[in-house]
Q: What sequence folds into this?
């Protein structure tokens, strides 16, 4: 199965975030979703906001964050890296400049949830021009009409947020969710499905229905529980590798 | 430009939100467009405005200020006389009534200084709705009087511990709550900003301020040359400006927080100075105090209500087109204005509104004596006692607080406290 796993560039520090990427890849993750910390991540839960604040306090804004991304890319050139961040960080330097900076760091796609697919400030076009994918984020609360419009726009991937809330709560895979996944993939997009994945059983069930399972705050929470000491960080890296293995079914 | 074009005011505005929050915004837009044309809704709102808020509020002629400033006739729109002490109630009541029509039973709100939270808490108590107010932990600590009042109205105040733990973080937290609970919950955003349709909704409910000013002026043959209002997010200013936007004879002036100086982190000036940039933050495109990457920057103002990094998109557009002039007022100028109007007119401005007062004091002389300069006093200053007292009478205030603390530590009734027996 495919696992897209998440980390924040520069959280809890540069060295550890690179080690986290190593552990995720070793644990079987075959896509890395790397978040560039933003001061106001309103589509994320409190765990990722707290982690983002820590990364920013250590100076990991766009440029420094992308340097971390580049290092990770050099260590794992075969693993695609998708950047996740917010519209402010893409719009302020100029959307095309931002996409170019991402490309130079080895990024292959952008996930920017607050630049809606029908009002994206030219993100999709800039990505196309530079050989990246723009990956929109779909939510179950979208009207059928809007969801079908998104699905028919020709995106190669669509990120499906499988809950009517933000990251960090439990996921149940009911019929409504499965119908939602079907609609997201209707136009041929590969579906990256997640939000709230906690254990191997959930990811096993979900993996049958999506191109890749997405897991994010489960890893961030491991780091948040251990980030204050070197020993804790080493333990977190071990736990992350084990958790990735659990989610990918490698263990 | 009085209404948005599909959520945009020129290039500013929009609905830059994740899809998880799109549906509640679209539902809200539809409901608002329906009820704002519904005579029954409007009549219900009118009665509440009259009997509960206490509208209309007076347009007061300030004779001593006029004489001392030596220019235009100074008029003050006393929004501070509205129930709960500020203009915020106009929007809170409007949105809560709308939410009730939509079948929502739970209201959430963000608040910085606590004025909008307080107004929303009162509106919910009046209309029988559950109320949860998100407030940055830092603000909860420094604005205890408003927290206490919100709780008195039955609201639950939730301290927000993420990010910088101030107003913008409270907005993020309210958005998260709404994304999860929108089926039974309405989010009452307190300023004319955020994603569409909020700027249109908040402006519509606040426009009653300007409509009254226009009517009062016509009834009394007052010839208005300029209207001045303070601008944080911009709800009171857009409310008083709106009926005058298409009247080129009336200058519209917005007073921003100049804080303690012009540098980054020293003020909250988005339209003056050079600390701000165009950006997309918290769901809308406008001018923000953000850095070159797009990260939000710290802001500063003595008035908590103006201490915010963004400005409503319509005001940003009106500022860029030149229709609204902006000026920035330092903390110390605002404090001087509080004193000036209190002593000379018996009117106590809120620190926010005092920025408008201070701007008026500067420009009154530029205007002819037979014309009127209208200051919107968006709120009254009782709430600022913990900020103004340490400035104007620090020793006595300190003594008072120490005695109070001692009394509370000893668990004494005020009648038995040492301070009562001191000769």
A:
């Amino acid at each position: 199965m495919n696992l897209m796993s998440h980390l924040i560039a520069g959280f809890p520090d540069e060295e550890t975030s690179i080690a986290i990427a190593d552990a995720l890849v070793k644990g079987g993750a075959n896509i890395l979703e790397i978040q560039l910390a933003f001061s106001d991540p309103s589509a994320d839960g409190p765990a990722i906001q707290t982690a983002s604040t820590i990364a920013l306090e250590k100076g990991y804004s766009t440029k420094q964050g992308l340097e971390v991304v580049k290092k990770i890319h050099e260590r794992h050139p075969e693993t695609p890296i998708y950047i996740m961040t917010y519209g402010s960080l893409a719009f302020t330097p100029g959307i095309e400049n931002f996409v170019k900076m991402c490309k130079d760091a080895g990024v292959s796609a952008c996930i920017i949830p607050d630049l809606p697919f029908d009002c994206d400030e030219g993100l999709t076009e800039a990505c196309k021009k530079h050989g990246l994918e723009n990956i929109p984020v779909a939510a179950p609360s979208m009207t059928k009409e809007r969801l079908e419009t998104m699905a028919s726009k020709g995106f190669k991937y669509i990120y499906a947020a499988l809950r009517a809330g933000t990251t960090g709560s439990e996921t149940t895979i009911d019929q409504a969710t499965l119908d939602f996944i079907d609609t997201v993939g209707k136009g041929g997009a590969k579906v990256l499905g997640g939000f709230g994945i906690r254990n191997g059983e959930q990811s096993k069930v979900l993996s049958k229905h999506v191109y890749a399972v997405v897991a994010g705050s489960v890893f961030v929470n491991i780091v948040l529980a251990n980030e204050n000491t070197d020993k804790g960080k080493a333990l977190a890296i071990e736990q992350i590798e084990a958790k990735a293995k659990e989610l990918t079914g490698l263990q | 430009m009085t209404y948005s074009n599909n959520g945009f005011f020129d290039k500013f505005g929009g609905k830059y939100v994740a899809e998880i929050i799109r549906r509640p915004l679209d539902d809200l837009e539809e409901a608002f467009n329906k009820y704002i044309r519904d005579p029954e809704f409007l009549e219900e709102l009118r009665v509440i405005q009259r009997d509960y808020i206490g509208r209309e509020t007076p347009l007061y002629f300030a004779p001593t200020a006029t004489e001392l400033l030596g220019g235009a006739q100074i008029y003050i729109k006393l929004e501070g006389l509205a129930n709960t002490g500020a203009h915020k109630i106009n929007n809170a009541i409007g949105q809560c009534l709308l939410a009730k029509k939509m079948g929502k039973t739970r209201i959430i709100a963000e608040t910085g200084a606590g004025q909008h939270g307080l107004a929303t808490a009162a509106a919910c108590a009046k209309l029988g709705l559950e109320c949860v107010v998100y407030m940055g932990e830092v603000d909860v600590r420094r604005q205890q009087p408003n927290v206490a009042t919100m709780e008195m109205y039955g609201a639950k105040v939730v301290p927000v511990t993420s990010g910088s733990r101030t107003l913008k973080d409270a907005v993020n937290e309210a958005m998260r709550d709404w994304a999860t609970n929108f089926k039974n919950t309405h989010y009452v955003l307190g300023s004319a900003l955020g994603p569409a349709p909020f700027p249109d909704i908040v402006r519509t409910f606040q426009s009653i301020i300007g409509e009254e000013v226009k009517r009062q002026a016509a009834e009394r043959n007052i010839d208005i040359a300029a209207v001045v209002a303070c601008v944080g997010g911009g709800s009171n200013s857009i409310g008083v400006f709106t009926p005058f936007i298409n009247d080129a004879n009336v200058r519209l002036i917005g007073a921003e927080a100049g804080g303690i100086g012009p540098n980054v982190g020293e003020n909250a000036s988005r339209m003056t100075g050079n600390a701000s940039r165009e950006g997309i933050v918290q769901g809308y495109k406008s001018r923000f105090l953000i850095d070159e990457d797009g990260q939000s920057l710290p802001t500063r103002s003595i008035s908590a209500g103006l201490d915010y990094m963004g400005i409503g998109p319509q005001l940003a557009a009106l500022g860029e087109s030149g229709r609204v002039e902006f000026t920035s007022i330092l903390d110390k100028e605002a404090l001087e204005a509080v004193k000036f109007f209190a002593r000379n007119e018996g009117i106590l401005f809120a620190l926010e509104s005092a920025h408008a007062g201070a701007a008026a004091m500067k420009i009154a002389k530029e205007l002819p004596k037979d014309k009127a300069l209208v200051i919107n006093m968006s709120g009254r200053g009782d709430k600022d006692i913990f900020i103004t007292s340490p400035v104007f009478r620090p020793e006595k205030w300190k003594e008072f607080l120490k005695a109070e603390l001692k009394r509370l530590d000893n668990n004494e009734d005020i009648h038995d406290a040492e301070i009562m027996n001191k000769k």
Q: What stands out?
A: Residues 55-85+206-385 of chain B form a domain with the Rossmann fold fold (CATH 3.40.50.1100). Chain B touches chain A through 39 residues (CB under 8 Å). Chain B has three domains: 8-51+88-203, 55-85+206-385, 393-421. The longest strand of chain B covers residues 251-259.
